[in-house]
Design a protein that fits this description.
The complex is a heterodimer. In chain A, 34% of the residues lie in helices and 28% in strands. Chain A is an alpha/beta fold. The longest helix of chain B is centred in the N-terminal third of the chain and has 41 residues, at 20-60. The model of chain B has no long low-confidence stretch (mean pLDDT 87).
């Protein structure tokens, strides 16, 4: 049997914010590998760099130094256009706040990644309707975000993240803004879709119970005056 | 329809959802609309007045003037007139001589302009000269020429004794000293003593502005060397002043459009700030920086299109209503028109709209560049 290949590879990545004496180094010399098809939970106290790590892996930000590869391809040196194309084709995002566009209804919000990827409106909307069906939101397809509850908004956001059939799903505290019942439902939905679509997924969470139910857990923790990364699989 | 066009359209059409973006967009549209409206109405007013002045020029004076290329006298005016008549068809031709004479009444004598014209049949004195000499219709007038003739008593000035047939308003450009108009033969006898004329004036009420060019062509075909002054040359200082006035007013009132464009720039920048998270998400789900830039250009262009179209429609409507209802009357006798005239030139409206649109695109270009340069994580970091 062949070894599972790493879909996400992070080597010696550093990332800080601010300049001079106000500079804070959030990630220092971080190494991480996520195998294809795995569901990884990233946990740690606030401010330790969980979201920053997710942003770097999701090509939303650039590391100060280090090496980053997705699907075996080095992506650190790509220009803005190519990074945008990779985000559209390869990566699906679910944010803590749903971040649906207020001016678009649920259906158009879900269809958006496909429209950005150049899919024609009719096909994109048909695919979006399938995804809304998968998250049990068909009946709310033509409602605007401010007409949906928090749980419903997050379900639509999950559907949007999967619209372009990505291979990597990144979720930044997707349940952080929901009550217990809705949080459980959304997490179960993410896990179910992860398995169904055969995704590689990384979920940032504060919820230990959810983290324990994932394939792997990656713990980020500060140690002393510097930041240290403690991997506890 | 591309994704950025779809979203840009929703940002504009989403006005009914009463978001903050909608309010900001509405303010930008109103700013541009008012700027375009003011410019359209002002230029219609200016065009109305200028067109009245141009109509007055066409109604009163000659439309072209043929003068000798050298010297002051046309030696064979009959032949020249017949060539022009044949070449130009239905055109009014008037032979003219000009000079200065001493004009005296029973009580006074003053130097005055003497104009001899082939279309004048009786002696006409303008009001200025009539007032200076104290004469009216039916009074005797003696016109004394600087030219002398030899008599048994020695050289004596040539003189004509005549009777005032009419007193009229002064002709434009007749001078401050007043003028008397005489039949051509009388003026020729007084001034030159020959049948020569100084100029042939042409009038064609149907096509006044190109009459000069047509006359030039006819004379060139006939091999006659004479100078033709067209309507623009005859009234060059006035027409230049009118053109300059139009440019200056366009620039001055156009500054309103610059203010509206700056307002648009601020508002689009506010939208960019308010929609920071949306833009980060759009970027996060794969919208290219170029497409993000286009989204804001679409927003600015949309605002420019809606604002300038609304402004142009309302400006044209206001100008037409004010002109047709003659809502702004003017004192009689002071102006050549009895109400403030408005005249809408479609080309001018199109130019104003184009300028407004260009300003809108330029104003949205700056925020669009700012948005495209941002890393998506910047918009997501501080939630």
């Amino acid at each position: 049997m062949s070894e599972p290949s790493a879909f996400v590879e992070v080597r010696g990545v550093c990332k800080g914010f601010g300049v001079g004496s106000a500079r804070i180094e959030v990630l220092h010399n971080l190494d991480l590998e996520v195998d294809q098809g795995k569901l990884l939970a990233v946990v740690g106290p606030s401010g330790v760099g969980k979201s920053t790590l997710l942003h770097l892996i999701g090509l939303l930000d650039r590391p100060d130094s280090g090496w980053l590869a997705l699907d075996g391809r080095e992506v650190g040196g790509l220009d803005g256009q190519k990074r945008a194309d990779l985000r559209n084709r390869l990566i699906g995002f679910v944010f803590q706040y749903h971040h649906l566009l207020d001016e678009l209804d649920a259906l158009d919000n879900v269809a958006l990644p496909l429209r950005i990827g150049g899919v024609r409106a009719g096909r994109a909307r048909a695919r979006a309707m399938e995804l809304l069906d998968a998250v049990n939101m068909t009946h709310r397809a033509h409602h605007f975000p401010d007409q949906l509850s928090g749980g419903e908004q997050q379900r639509v956001a999950v559907a949007r993240a999967l619209a372009a059939e990505p291979r990597l799903l990144l979720a930044d505290e997707p349940t952080g803004n929901l009550d217990r019942a809705n949080a459980d439902q959304v997490f179960e939905l993410v896990r179910e879709l992860h398995l169904l679509a055969g995704l590689t997924s990384i979920i940032v969470t504060h919820n230990e119970e959810m983290a324990r139910s994932c394939d792997d857990v990656y713990r980020l923790a500060p140690a002393g005056d510097t930041f240290e990364n403690n991997k506890d699989v | 329809m591309s994704a950025e066009l779809h979203i840009g359209r929703r940002y504009l059409v989403g006005l009914r959802r009463r978001t903050h973006v909608a309010t900001v967009t509405l303010i930008s549209i109103m700013g541009l609309c008012l700027g375009v409206l003011a410019l359209v109405v002002t230029l219609a007013l200016l065009e109305g007045f200028q067109s009245s002045i141009r109509s007055e020029i066409v109604a009163r004076g000659a439309h072209a003037r043929v003068v000798p290329s050298v010297g002051r006298r046309i030696e064979d005016p009959e032949q020249l007139a017949s060539v022009l008549h044949e070449g130009l068809g239905q055109v009014e031709l008037v032979e003219v001589v000009n000079g200065t004479c001493l004009v005296s009444s029973l009580t006074d004598a003053v130097p005055a302009s003497v104009v001899g014209r082939s279309d004048v049949l009786e002696v006409v004195v303008d009001r200025v000269l009539a007032a200076r000499l104290g004469v009216g219709v039916g009074d005797e007038l003696v016109v004394i020429s600087p030219r002398q003739r030899l008599t048994p008593l020695g050289p004596l000035p040539v003189r004509v004794r005549t009777e005032v047939a009419d007193v009229r308003a002064p002709e434009p450009g007749s001078g401050e000293g007043g003028a008397v108009r005489l039949p051509l033969e009388v003026a020729q006898r007084l001034l030159w003593g020959t049948d020569e004329v100084e100029a042939i004036e042409l009038r064609d009420p149907n096509h006044p502005w190109n009459l000069g060019a047509r006359a030039r062509a006819v004379l060139a075909d006939a091999g006659i060397t004479a100078r033709v002054q067209d309507l623009e040359e005859l009234h060059r200082p006035l027409l230049l002043a009118l053109a300059l006035e139009r440019v200056m007013i366009f620039v001055a009132v156009g500054l309103m459009l610059v203010v509206a464009a700056l307002n648009l720039l601020c508002n689009v920048a506010m939208v960019a700030a308010e929609k920071r998270h949306d833009l980060a998400v759009l970027s996060g789900i794969g919208m290219r920086p170029r497409a993000l830039r286009r989204l804001f250009l679409i927003l600015g262009t949309g605002i420019g299109l809606v604002g300038s179209t609304l402004g142009a429609i309302s400006g044209v409507a206001i100008a037409v209503i004010l002109d047709r209802t003659r809502a702004l009357p003017l004192p009689r006798g002071v102006f050549v028109v009895s109400a403030v005239p408005f005249r809408v030139e479609p080309a001018m409206v199109a130019l104003v709209m184009a300028v407004a649109l260009i300003f809108a695109v330029v104003a949205s270009w700056l925020p669009s560049r700012m948005v495209a340069r941002r890393e998506p994580a910047e918009g997501l970091r501080y939630e």
